[in-house]
Design brief:
heterodimer, A: mainly beta, Jelly Rolls, B: alpha+beta, 4-stranded antiparallel sheet, 4 strands, about 35% strand
Chain lengths: ~210, ~80
Amino acid sequence: MTSDYPDWQRAFRIVGTEITIPINITASAVTIPVAIQSSAVTINVRFVSQAVTLWVGITASVITLDVNIESQTANINFTFADQSVAVFDAAKWFAHTAAQKYIVGSGGVPPGVFTVLASRTVPSGATFFITGMSFGVDGGSGMTVAIADLRIDAVSLMYVGWLPSGALIFDVPIRATANQVVDMRIKNVGGAAGSVAYGGFWGYDEV
Amino acid sequence: MALTPAQRRLYSGDYNYLNQECQPDGSVIVTISGGPSGQVHRLHVRDLYGPDEEVLSEEVIPPGPPAHIQARLDQARRFP
């Protein structure tokens, strides 16, 4: 039988020079539900100390960490006041963890046709996010324009053309999945048969 | 046909930097560097990515700076 405690309150106040509150739970399955239903909820967690360590370690074969916010108005503030704090976007983070990929190539580009300069097959188990491409041509080639063509599985994604060189940074990374072939071709327009071009693309692997 | 060590890196993605220099005869000189192995592989390949891909030659280039530069770096670390 449940009872209603309209003004229920229980305060825990512990004062001491050294306080340790261990909570050890050992079981085959642990469930700790915290359900709060109220017209207004305020939860303040405030640490005041010369040194604060708040460690959250999650180790599992499968992890789902969901944060769902539903509100007419939501204000999310992160304030960092430390020179050693860094927040990375995905591209920079994957470079930070040495997962960056730079694929470049060079070679002769006969006039009038596209020639593959750089190519990569995405390894099994990886997704390749392409964040930029660049190319350049030999200055004495006589080309009137060089057209670069970035492709996935022989399907053209974009054409860009100018002289003598250029680079594009993609606002939205291009996603290539495992076993897909990414390549970049160059078309020599108006140049000599011995024209040489250079180019490539880059991004990062998410495994 | 069994893959060479450099081919295994090429197809497993064990690298950060991949350079492909197309040669006039259609072959390609591929240089692979970066990644967990820390090695630099250079291989000369015929029919790269094609059905008859063949490694004509393959070498491991010692990573790091030339010996005389490495000696200066070591010396600088010892006497800051």
